[in-house]
Design goal:
The protein contains 13 helices and 18 strands. The chain is an alpha/beta fold. It has two domains: 31-219, TIM Barrel; 235-358, Lyase, Ornithine Decarboxylase, Chain A, domain 1 (Beta Barrel). Strands 1, 10, 13, 14, 15, 16, 17 and 18 form an eight-stranded mixed sheet that branches.
């Protein structure tokens, strides 16, 4: 055991039992649809290997990543029996590596479709076809997809689209995209269909179709960008107090002298900063949790240090661990205060925190 693991100043705890709970909530909401977890961006910053292994043990058999290299790493972790979809599709020259790793590309252009068909991989592997129904990122336009011959679609066993506004249930684009996707699927040879991310899983059975692709909800983020009582926090980020100091009235704290004390204050300096994923925009307005109470951030978040108000808190001593993200500082609340999303907050968590996984890997 390394010295740092005996006395960490910054720790990230990933609760795999909470991850499994969230998976079961999403599975139940999806009805009979297959649940294919999205584990791209290193499992939304929490470790794709550990998360995918636990989700496999919970019954997940298909997974989504973004990059070829992510897929190759996940294949090594999960073995040959899982289905791993690569959202980038077939980038130029990548067909042989996709085939070698047994990965399933999500084809998003006619050029990708033809490259996959021309490769030796088509004799062994199927592919998914991405249809753009209104997001205008990746994917064939519906009219392009409907014009494809049956021969060019022979290797497609999954049709995919992605909603732009699923976290706003009343947005008219949700139904417009769903309807267009259904119409397009009807015009193509029979294949399974997938539409729903986390938020769309809760929009009802007309959205869940054959397969759902939850991401943020697995990792504790609410489907509507606010905390959801059905889902548990998976990530807990804690930083140690390095020093407690008294700041008299009239003196400032941190860079830019943005915060000036108006009364005598006890201030704790934490071993965390924006290098660890605590965004600069989290202050002013952000908070940490110590001894069950919210403690406001003071001044600017710097690269390695944060100041919090611990006036009147006897638990504020050097070495005490303070929660910056977790059950008491919900990822959605922290993201809102920082002017961003739970997606960005989790994927920006830095590498300096000592990582600890609790709960069975599977």
């Amino acid at each position: 055991m390394s010295p740092s693991s005996l006395n960490p100043t910054l720790s990230l705890t990933v609760d795999l039992d909470a991850l499994a709970h969230n998976y079961r909530v999403l599975r139940d909401a999806a009805g009979g649809a297959e649940v294919a977890p999205v584990v791209k961006a290193d499992g939304y910053g929490l470790g794709a290997s550990a998360c995918a292994r636990r989700l496999w043990a919970e019954g997940a058999k298909s997974f989504y990543v973004a990059r070829l290299t992510e897929g190759e790493a996940l294949r090594a972790d999960l073995g040959p029996d899982s289905v791993i979809y690569v959202l980038d599709g077939v980038t130029p020259g990548a067909a042989s590596r996709l085939a070698a790793a047994g990965l399933t590309p999500v084809l998003s252009s006619l050029a990708q479709l033809d490259e996959w068909r021309a490769s030796a991989a088509t004799s062994r592997l199927k592919a998914a076809l991405h249809i753009d129904t209104g997001m205008n990122r990746l994917g064939l336009r519906p009219e392009e997809a409907r014009a494809l011959s049956a021969d060019r679609l022979a290797d497609i066993d999954l049709l995919l689209t992605h909603l732009a506004c699923a976290d706003a249930p009343a947005h008219p684009l949700n139904e417009a995209q769903r309807s267009l996707f259904a119409e397009t699927c009807t015009a193509l040879p029979k294949a399974r269909a997938t539409l729903a991310n986390t938020a769309a899983v809760f929009l009802g059975s007309t959205y869940t179709l054959d397969q759902v692709r939850p991401g943020i909800g697995l990792y504790g983020g609410g489907p509507l960008g606010v905390p959801d009582a059905r889902l548990k926090a998976v990530a807990t980020l804690e930083a140690a107090i390095l020093q407690v100091r008294t700041v008299p009235p009239g003196e400032s704290i941190g860079y830019g002298a943005d915060f000036v004390a108006t009364h005598p204050m006890q201030v704790a300096i934490l071993a965390a900063g924006y290098a660890d994923g605590v965004l600069r925009s989290f202050s002013p307005g952000g908070y940490a949790c110590l001894a069950g109470e919210r403690r406001p951030l003071l001044g600017r978040v710097s690269m390695d240090l944060i100041a919090i108000d611990v006036t009147g808190c006897d638990a504020a001593v050097p070495g005490a661990m303070v929660e910056l993200l977790g059950a008491n500082v919900a990822v959605d609340d922290a993201a809102a205060l920082a002017g961003t999303s739970a997606y960005e907050l989790l994927t920006r968590l830095g590498s300096r925190a000592e990582r600890r996984y609790v709960g069975a890997l599977g």
